[in-house]
User: Fold this.
Amino acid sequence: MKTRTIILKTFLLLISISSFAQTNDEQYAKALKFKLAYNYKEALPLYQALLKADSNNVNYLTGAGYCYVKYSYYYLPEAEKMNYYNTAGYLARKAIKINEASADGHVVYAMALGRIYENASSKVKIGNSKVIKAELDRCIQLNPKIAGAYHILGRWHRTIAGFNTFEKVMINSFFGGVPPGGSYDDALKCFLMAITLEPKFMLHQYELAETYYEMGKKEEAKTWAKKVMDGTPFCVDDEKAKKDCAELIKKLN
Assistant:
């Protein structure tokens, strides 16, 4: 009788574990679906719940980190954004520590750092530029089909290219220069690659138009800005891109 009781308890425990795993899988499938649809409001709470169930799952960590950055940027007041960005950075670092070969971990860490230091002084930005570049290079090495990595890398190149003479002196004198790149041409290549991988994502197209604008290539900038204006937005990223392109066209006219 005692043996039967042990067998029954073991069987029930296995069923419970199987049911728990299935629930997590279903929850993750929903979270991923929302994330891929750029629906950060719906995706974030699902990822948060998944992390409570398993805080060491790399997919949960990177998915949550990505949504923390995006949700904060679009929906939180300025005073509250930084906490979410820092949380995203923590989750990404944890994912990388668990699995260094996580391409998503590296790109989310670069995303978080970019937002954390977006409004920092030039000195701070320069000091973190190497880390961001290294994370993006590693991401692309692991998975060259992540459009977001090229998008952020394009912004990185454009930022470095746009530094003034004093800032460039600081880079060379205090930080030993920056990794190869940092040109508008490199930025163009990155944004074009991002568009190739995600042709309907308007934010890539806007950033390409903005790069052409900074280069003084007004016709090319206008062409890409109008392409965005002619499109139909289907997510909050697209809505922002359309708004920014409308402002860009005003400057071009």
Observations:
- The CA atoms of residues 86 and 112 lie 7 Å apart.
